[in-house]
């Protein structure tokens, strides 16, 4: 248990550093991320440009930090949105049960069967554009698992004694829903939200990498890898390596933290 | 029991198809301009007024939207998916060209992943605490955090740019004959990326199952009674494989999702690349068609998995007395 | 057949068996009785050489002059394969749920003797009939059979193998009364026919009374009393045995 605790703190610190650096990137970056310097294009990592420069002589490290802000912002916003939708959908399904539940669950299962990237692509085709829209689309397509967890938590909780008691005392419905059911489901929702966050980062970088997410002019970890495809052919390996490293470490942290909480949740339940 | 189960799966497949077709149809209406124009794409300008009217009545554009959906669905079922806005060719033809490429990639990946992860998972699960056991847990966690396309980028960097062993994109050599060897040669990198992205997680899943199965009562009974180790391994695998196959079924959609990205990165002209291109150039008819077909393919894949489940799980096939 | 001398088993420093010594005479039915937690199943595991990894064993268990405790894992396994057959308590979970009985019984019998499937089928068909199992039992899956039938399938294996020793750990406790009696009858028949040495573990005095030649009474990892059936039931000496017998009638 001690060791687990230490690992959790380790991952939290790394993630905290990453998030901290990207959040305060405006003050921290050594170079203006969009400042071009045609005398220093495609410079390999060196003393001045720690992670090298790109095809327009822009500092890769600066762009990575600022780009991280875009990626993490989209991921956060979309997760908030998807959690809200998921809680409402799963809550209704779980609380009312019966035929409503059966129908809602069949539909949910069907949604889970369609590759989510395909749905995102379809929506992206009709409302492509800003960072906000991107977050909206991802939020609207990322709530399926949350809904399923919320539903099973509600079903588990509503059979418990204190909910029956609350009903007997004619506690108002909203109070039962929010005070009792939702509050007690929060640990489970928290865990699934962490994993959703990792998934959202994945989706953002994938879409931007395909050139249909964030507009390529805005630096994000995905768009940087999108442009890196051409840079690789001229041997600018640092363009491809570092954005991916940032993505990898971030997702690894988030998933590691998620599984720690998941294990801990499991222990308190049993 | 089995009838109920099949019924549930069929209903589910139907709902998937309905949703996918709705999504497709919805796209046509959300697309800018006249739906008929969207349907016929670039050819719309060349149509005469009379033809346009004919289309409008044929599609029932003056009718309620549900009716329109019905008409569209009937057309789609008969193989008429409209015409590409950019190429002017029938969408059905374009998809027919692309689909086999995607299937080759996905089926190839699935095959290798299934064999490799079964072997790895069984080995690791049987030798608890071994290097392989702990190594696999570590690798699977790491591999689930690596975006496949980044792995692809790294591969291109190393194997194409640095070493020059494999081509970085395309499906056949410019001077090549496009034969099987040439095709396989081009397939190496995209296939390895897809395999590496999935194999760890799959092996891990089986490994956990094998570990759980190994401590079951019947294994102890068999071992106490001198059943040869080979036969015991077979028994364990036979039982551990059922949830594993189910898991494969659950993850099949993500295979197609993954192939979209990998196809685009490696210039593999499959369905995924088609989808991405269609979104980029706003070729709605192609987009609609590709989405619909992806949905159909996924449903068919799940059906295959279901059949496999029935074969492997006698409880589903026979139902128990107890 | 077995000679157990000063066997002590500890798991995580806790005594499970404390200085046990007894013999299991050849060709007889020896029954160990005692409540759960008395260490009787641990004794069986020790004989089989299948104690959990964290267990430590002292003393010796002689089988045909060889000390099982000192044998390597591999040799213990060979010994089990050659000479023992064991029937366990939970009949319903004793078989893998995804294989036909044919295959599983083959694995338990002919495979370990190195016989072919054809030989197995020919011989097993008669045994199955003899035990009044359904004619198509070999084509069925475990979940299509009752607990009593599954336990008789284990007996069928014993009949097939005719092992030197038959071990049974609470073989009747998962069965209802009717099937219990049936199983005991079949076991008796098997014993008279094969003259196998039997070591049976049970908490059920009825079972012990109806089948045993010799009885060992266990409590808290020790043997508190031993003797012929009549001695135990008619003149119990130890207070625990008296209590058991008194409750029984």
From TrEMBL, chain B:
Keyword Membrane carried by entry: yes
Against SUPFAM superfamilies, the record matches this protein to:
MetI-like
Gene Ontology molecular functions? dipeptide transmembrane transporter activity
Return the Pfam families for the record.
BPD_transp_1, BPD_transp_1_N
Q: Cite the InterPro entries for this sequence.
A: BPD_transp_1_N, MetI-like, MetI-like_sf
**Gene3D superfamilies reported in the protein's UniProt record:** MetI-like
Q: Topology relative to the membrane, per the entry?
A: Multi-pass membrane protein
The ABC transmembrane type-1 domain, residue ranges = 99-309
Q: Which domain of life is it from?
A: Bacteria
Its main subcellular localisation, reduced to a broad class, is: membrane
Give compartment(s).
Cell membrane
Which residue spans traverse the membrane?
A: 12-31, 105-126, 138-165, 185-206, 244-266, 286-312
Q: Which UniProt keywords apply?
A: Cell membrane, Membrane, Transmembrane, Transmembrane helix, Transport
Its cellular-component GO annotations read: plasma membrane
Q: Which family does it belong to?
A: Belongs to the binding-protein-dependent transport system permease family.
Protein name (record): Oligopeptide ABC transporter permease
From TrEMBL, chain C:
- One GO molecular-function entry: ATP binding
SUPFAM superfamilies for this protein: P-loop containing nucleoside triphosphate hydrolases
| Membrane disposition | Peripheral membrane protein
**InterPro entries, per the entry:** AAA+_ATPase (IPR003593), ABC_Ni/Peptide_Import (IPR050388), ABC_transporter-like_ATP-bd (IPR003439), P-loop_NTPase (IPR027417)
Pfam families found in the cross-reference section? ABC_tran
Q: Which UniProt keywords apply?
A: ATP-binding, Cell membrane, Membrane, Nucleotide-binding, Transport
Any idea where the ABC transporter domain is?
Answer: 2-245
Q: What are the subcellular locations of this protein? A: Cell membrane
The UniProt record lists the keyword Magnesium:
no
Broad class of the protein's primary localization? membrane
* Family (UniProt): Belongs to the ABC transporter superfamily.
Name the chain's protein: ABC transporter ATP-binding protein
Q: Print the organism lineage.
A: Bacteria, Bacillati, Bacillota, Bacilli, Bacillales
